[in-house]
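Side project, low priority. Logging it here so it doesn't get lost.
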Amino acid sequence: MQGYIAVTTISLLIILVIIRSIQLKKFGINVFKFGHMDKKDFIIPPFALLLLYLITSNAFNLPRLGTELFTNGIVGWIGVALCSAGLLLFLYSLISFGKSFRVGIDEESPGTLITTGAFSISRNPIYTAFGMVLCGEFLIYPNWILLIYLISAFWLFNRQVRLEEQSLVKIYGEEYVQYCQNVRRYI
């Protein structure tokens, strides 16, 4: 059961991003600015596909990579709760973002600065949601490869957030600086 929830969570995250990008495309907004400012972003998709395989292989008993570090059903259910909370935060973030949602840094047509909804709790609720989901996935499947993913993801999220912050200061100036003083980077 926990494995199916893990696969469903990852799948829903992907589906929600695709649906939102299709919705915004109807308004003439190109959501995917991924890799425009930093070409190293293109190393992320193969790792994301491997993550998807790791989660799916565990749920559907396909050939597995890595070994489990521990087995504990209660910890797995805590993982389910983290995945669920992360998914809800992600959905709330997409709704709060409105037409300003982008994947990557968009300095050409960034949209308005969003400081309400999920963004009144965290300056980066989407990254926080992804982090919650990845922690949950690891607790469901405590595999050493997923642990490496988790650590790497936190490093990559923080790297991306800092790049975005530099860009947001250029775009929004003092309004963004003031927002940073009032709202934490994560939770």
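Brief comment: The chain has six helices and two strands.
Revisit when time allows.
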